[in-house]
Amino acid sequence: MPTINVIDYHSFEGEDGKKLVNVLEDNGVDILHRCGGNSKCTSCRVEVIEGDFGPKSESEQQTLAAKGFNDDHIRLSCQVRVSGDATVKAVMTKTNSNLEPGTRPAD
């Protein structure tokens, strides 16, 4: 299984093919997902420090652009699937925002 290292948290193994947002949450990262994983709100965004989650979908590109996030290293964790080792930084968490995470995204 791939190893996911989360800056300011810890490293853990993530199930290949599973949505990154759920892998993060299942391993104690209090990542937000306010729209329930529908690529609408950008609250689940992560900065990819190392690793590659493949190309952005059209939906992910449009949502990020609409919110002004044009950096190639910013991804929506609800739209990417674990596919190899990676190091990421969770941008918005319950801890740093005082917001409730939202409805858990479907796998």
From TrEMBL:
Origin species: Anaerobacillus isosaccharinicus
GO biological process assignments: P450-containing electron transport chain
UniProt-recorded Gene Ontology molecular function terms: 2 iron, 2 sulfur cluster binding; electron transfer activity; metal ion binding
Gene3D superfamilies: 3.10.20.30
Cofactors demanded by this protein: [2Fe-2S] cluster
InterPro entries listed in its UniProt record: 2Fe-2S_ferredoxin-like_sf, 2Fe-2S_ferredoxin-type, Adrenodoxin-like, Beta-grasp_dom_sf
Protein family membership: Belongs to the adrenodoxin/putidaredoxin family.
SUPFAM superfamilies tied to this protein: 2Fe-2S ferredoxin-like
The protein's name in its UniProt record: (2Fe-2S)-binding protein
Domain 2Fe-2S ferredoxin-type, residue spans: 2-94
Pfam families on file: Fer2
Record has Cytoplasm as a keyword: no
Keywords: 2Fe-2S, Iron, Iron-sulfur, Metal-binding
